[in-house]
Structures are given as structure tokens and as C-alpha cells.
Write a structure and sequence with these properties.
Blueprint (H helix, E strand, L loop, with lengths): L1 E3 L14 E2 L2 E2 H10 L6 E5 L3 H7 L5 E5 L7 H10 L7 E6 L7 H12 L10 E6 L2 E2 L3 E4 L3 H5 L18 E5 L12 H16 L5 E3 L9 E5 L3 H12 L3 E5 L13 E3 L13 E5 L6 H10 L4 E4 L3 H13 L4 H4 L2 E2 L11 H22 L3
Parallel strand pairs: 1-4, 1-6, 4-5, 7-10, 12-13, 12-15, 13-14, 15-16, 16-17
Antiparallel strand pairs: 2-3, 6-9, 7-8, 7-9, 11-14
Helix pairs in contact: 7-11
Length: 367
């Protein structure tokens, strides 16, 4: 199921038709799906559907039009699932703005799901990961279709993950394309740079400057959100060691950072007496990063998310066996309430909270 019904608000034009190497973004995605072992391809359209149908080859596709696309992704999921073959055992939910996923990755997800002949033993949700970072597409067993058909508003598959913690399997793949999507003109401009990094392999998992002072407090920033870049500036100014966790970034791209960790494994970081973790992955891998930070006993963990996502996250982490006492260390939403809107203002509110927590913690330490 290829979801291509979004309104492209950040792009300002139907991003499905943006051209990369002579073909539209959607054509690249459909070529990947056509080259895989899927049984049928359902293309869910909404915004600019007539224009897209004229520009893209519809050969071998089942078209499902979402008349309620303005209400968000949940309606596209419902529309697509209603068109799925009744005999299908599962569905791959593929985002139209991820043109660099490899067909072999789709086949691996399908093969893993089908490796268990017993229906009861099949994973309900299979999520691909690259270097520990969750990506897309996600494979959903037919048993969870009814829950997805009950979704409304601008919510995706993640909305049901918290109820299926034991039925989720994370499948490692050697495909960084699962993490690359195009949501804005800036993403389109950066994509060549990211792909260049992929072609080089970027094999060094931990890149560090030579002059890192280990005794300084450490600010660990997970993600590539604009808030991360602003936080790195504040952290550097306030004499923190700044570590950014991202599979693609290089130190040359973020001069305020002292380290880049390119695998989502916080245990690879050098020992630190004082560590503060801020997760700004916009929901993509915040659960995994938060779980690692909590298990490591890190005192301050903030997540760039709203209250509803905070409740979902706490529920999912609790289902993993993390004690409620530890969950109280999560700061969601991140930062002090100062009416922050811009990335710089949000970063300021978070750093103010970090400093406040640091001072409070120091007061409780034995003399």
C-alpha cells in the first residue's frame, strides 16, 4: 500500500511529482515496489489525485481515492486497507516520499513475516531498522487491520504500536533508504549530500574531535531536527560536551558538536559522570532512544513531543517492563513553558530546563 494522498504543506506543491534524476519521486517509489515480491500494489491518492494520475504510470496498480485526505494519514490508511485483497496475510505500508528504499528490503520484510507458517506465531508488526534506527516501510499483519481501520485524524500506524509491544519485531536491514524521506524543499536539496555519505559507507560509528574533555557534562542530542542544531550551539556556549546521534551527519556539518554517534546505541559512548539526553526524532525512534537512556540510569531525558505522544511513549515503555519510577525522569514536552515556537526558542527552553535540573541535582548531592 503506497500512501500518496498527503497535501505536501511543507513542500508547497505535490511532492509526489517532484523530479529526481528525470523521474518523479512517486515513480521512484513505485519502481521499488514493482521490483519486489508483493502480491498487489494499492496506490492511495487524495490531494492532487487527477494531476498525479495523468503524470504517473498506473500499470499494475489498484487506485484507492481518499476523499477525506484533508483529515490526515489515518483516513488514507483506512482507504487503502479497504482495498486490500481479502486473502492477503499482511500489508506493507509504504510512504510515497521515500524513493530510496531497496526492493530487497521489502522482500526481506515479506520473507520474515511469512517464515512462520503458524498464524499465531507470526509477528503482528515488522519494523526495519538501520544501525538501530527505526525506519519505513512497516509490515502489518492482517490481525491488526481492524484497529487501523478505526484510526482518525493525522495519525499513522504508530498509534497502535503501544498495544502490541510483544507483537513487534525490529528487523535489521542494510538499507539506509528506510530513513530517508522528503518533506520539504530543504530535504530535496540535502538528499544528494546524504546519498554521497551513503556511497562512502560512513563506516566510522563514532566520530570524535581530538580535544574532547571527558570531565565536562555531556549533552546527547538524538536526531537531525533543526532544534538539535540550535541545542548544539547552546550546549557549546555553556561548556557541555555535545554528542549528536544520527546515522548521516558528519562533524564538518555541525561544528558545535564534539562527537557524532552513527548508531542508535548509547552504550557506545565513553563513560560520563553527568549526561543529559534530548530526543528530537519526531517520533521515528524516540521510544528506542528513551528506553536506552532510562536503562542506563540517565537522570534527565527529554523528548520533543506533545502530551499525547508522551502518554503513548510512557505506555509503550511501561509495557517493556520499565518501572514507573524511572519513567518519571522523562520530560515530555521537553523544556520550560515559555511559549517557544522557533527552533531557537525551543532549544532555549530545553537548555533552561537542563540547567535548572543540573542545579537542583547538585543541591541534593552529599557535600
Amino acid at each position: 500500500m503506497v500512501l500518496a494522498g498527503g497535501m505536501s504543506r511543507r513542500m508547497g506543491a505535490p511532492k509526489q511529482l517532484l523530479r529526481i534524476e528525470g523521474k518523479s519521486l512517486l515513480e521512484h517509489t513505485l519502481a521499488t515496489v514493482r521490483a519486489s515480491a508483493v502480491h498487489e500494489i494499492i496506490l492511495v491518492l487524495g490531494f492532487a489525485a487527477d494531476e498525479i494520475e495523468k503524470e504517473v504510470s498506473l500499470q499494475g496498480l489498484k487506485i484507492a481515492r481518499n476523499e477525506f485526505y484533508q483529515q490526515g494519514m489515518g483516513t488514507s490508511l483506512r482507504t487503502g486497507l479497504a482495498a486490500v485483497d481479502p486473502q492477503a496475510t499482511a500489508a506493507l505500508i509504504i510512504l510515497a516520499d521515500q524513493p530510496f528504499v531497496q526492493p530487497a528490503t521489502l522482500d526481506r520484510l515479506i520473507k520474515f513475516h511469512g517464515s512462520s507458517k503458524a498464524e499465531a506465531a507470526r509477528p503482528q508488526i515488522v519494523i526495519p531498522t538501520y544501525r538501530g534506527f527505526r525506519g519505513n516501510p512497516v509490515l502489518l499483519d492482517r490481525t491488526v487491520f481492524p484497529e487501523l481501520q478505526g484510526l482518525s485524524g493525522d495519525v499513522g500506524c504508530r498509534a497502535i504500536f503501544g498495544d502490541h509491544t510483544k507483537g513487534i519485531y525490529k528487523l535489521p536491514v542494510d538499507d539506509a533508504g528506510i530513513l530517508l524521506d522528503i518533506d520539504s524543499p530543504e530535504d530535496l536539496e540535502k538528499i544528494d549530500q546524504l546519498r554521497t555519505g551513503l556511497s562512502r559507507g560512513e563506516s566510522e560509528m563514532l566520530e570524535s574531535r581530538n580535544d574532547v574533555l571527558e570531565k565536562k557534562p555531556e549533552l546527547v542530542l538524538v536526531g537531525r531536527d533543526p532544534v538539535v542544531f540550535a541545542l548544539a550551539q547552546f550546549g557549546h556556549l555553556l561548556h557541555f560536551t555535545v554528542t549528536v546521534v544520527d546515522p548521516f551527519l558528519r562533524l564538518s556539518e555541525i561544528p558545535e558538536a564534539d562527537r557524532i554517534l552513527r548508531v542508535l546505541d548509547l552504550s557506545r559512548l565513553p563513560a560520563a559522570e553527568e549526561r543529559y539526553v534530548i530526543i528530537a526524532s519526531r517520533g521515528q525512534f524516540d521510544e528506542d532512544a528513551a528506553a536506552q537512556a532510562l536503562q542506563m540510569g540517565i537522570f534527565y531525558i527529554a523528548v520533543l513531543a506533545g502530551k499525547q505522544r508522551g502518554r503513548e511513549l510512557a505506555k509503550a515503555l511501561g509495557a517493556q517492563g520499565i518501572a514507573q519510577e524511572r519513567l518519571t525522569r522523562l520530560h515530555i514536552p521537553a523544556g520550560l513553558e515559555i511559549g517557544a515556537e522557533s527552533p531557537e526558542e525551543i532549544a532555549l527552553s530545553i537548555m533552561a530546563e537542563v540547567i535548572a535540573e543540573r542545579k537542583r541535582n547538585a543541591q541534593h548531592e552529599p557535600a
